[in-house]
Amino acid sequence: MSIVRSSKFRHVFGTPAPTNKGCFLGMKTGGSGDSNCAVSANFLAMVKTSKVFIVPLDEAGRKEENNMPFIDGRCIIWDLQWSPFNDNVIAVSDDRGDVKVYLIPDGGLTETITKPYWQLTNVHQKKVTFLQWHPTAEYILLSGGADNMIVIWHTEAQRHVMTFNFPESLCSASWNYNGSLFAATYTENKKTCLRIIDPRSQEIKIENNECYPGVKVSKCVFLENGNLITVGFDRQANRRMNLWLKSDDYQKSVCEMDLGNSSGVLLPYYDPDLNMLYTVIKGETVVKYYEIVDSKICFLSSYGSTNTQKGGNILPKRAVDYMSNEVARFYKLDDKKCEPIKFVVPRKSELFQSDLFPDCNNDEAALTAQEWLGGKDADPRKMEFNAGGGDTCGSREAKTEPKMMSKPMTKSLPRSSQRPISTASALTQETNSYHPVHSVTEGNDFKELMEDMKKVKATVRKLNKGVSKLEEQLEEKNNAVQEHEEEEEEEEEEEEE
């Protein structure tokens, strides 16, 4: 007798957006990187060789590519990532070894951009293949390149603060939940290896030299509890997905899944709130999703379509339509369009489902760059879904600097200021000596804007709480009416008898 594992996500299903109204049409996109696409709560970014098209999420439909403004990278784009703390800031890497940060105006681009807001150069010697923003600290960005080097940047200061070299081909990297460590996969001696590194002490905490016997591209993803998922290949070129426990120092896999012999690049997307993992393979037509339970990776289901995917990315959790029980939204890039796919948990009730939507990461950094570089750690700040985005992490000391991107430096930093820093004390000294300059007008305008936003958010929270109370009262009344009707039916049956 087979026993089906019980899970509230077992019936999750994917629903594509209507082609003419919900998809982004008319742009033949595609690049040399993995995802070729990035999504913030405001914008969709799509790569076409050296161009990046930026489209507001609420402006789906057919576009005229020749008439659209874009970001002109001037060389082949390899990766792009939106900042988790500013939905208008995007980092782009290219094949010259440069990382550029652009600021997108509200409403989208009105003209083609050729100059970045910040430019991070003179460190990588070859193409930069992947980027990762820090999960809790503002202005901290990790980049990895074909020169087998990982660089950590202070983007606002436009300089690098740490570098890490690897023996052979560098494949991927992933920050842990609070950004105190990062994991990296690479190849050495015809094997795929794994390192866990403390970036501020520049210490290799753990090393696994026999992660996979194959040398094809591998990926790693840190889980919220500190465990790690990796994807790689065995000697027969079969793709494997493994779960490694923090308690075992990531030396022994406790769960392994066979993902077939596809050679396409696999893109993993992890939801730390629900402990779900979504996987996409370039060149295939299927999106698969899993649930991580204790020390197991449990396959849930898959969504299939007819068009092969050239890339894609997932929407930030705080932007999903939670009242329709949408737990994730994937933007799939193919030859003809970018197609949003909503993943929904079916429920009979139309009320807010709190078990599906625990507090998720909000768009406010828990730490400044100086605090993190000085050795401080903090978990991501959270927001509630059913309370209009209220902060539930408690109060934090107000920042002395306004939460606004400072004006970029017009002069390049001297070569001596771009040397890597090796100790936490040195990091503290150098970062404390840097003071971004803001104009008085910008600061005052921004403070007024922030006060207005706080008032609006407070009003929204009150309205949402009022709606929640009304829904609860309505449900109680419905239950009371139903009980009363049942009692009347029972009395009528007794009278008839």
Automatic annotation (TrEMBL):
Keywords: Repeat, WD repeat
Composition bias type Basic and acidic residues, residue spans: 394-404
A Pfam family this chain is assigned to: DUF1899
Single GO biological process annotation from the record: actin filament organization
WD repeat residue intervals: 121-163
MF (Gene Ontology): actin filament binding
Parts forming coiled coils: none
PROSITE patterns (alphabetical): WD_REPEATS_2, WD_REPEATS_REGION
Keyword Transmembrane among record annotations: no
Highest rank taxon of the organism: Eukaryota
Start and end residues of each stretch annotated as Disordered: 378-420, 470-497
Segments forming domain DUF1899: 2-61
Entry-linked InterPro entries: Coronin (IPR015505), DUF1899 (IPR015048), WD40/YVTN_repeat-like_dom_sf (IPR015943), WD40_rpt (IPR001680)
Compositional bias ranges of the Acidic residues kind: 484-497
PANTHER family linked to this entry: CORONIN (PTHR10856:SF0)
Protein family (similarity comment): Belongs to the WD repeat coronin family.
Name this polypeptide is given: Coronin
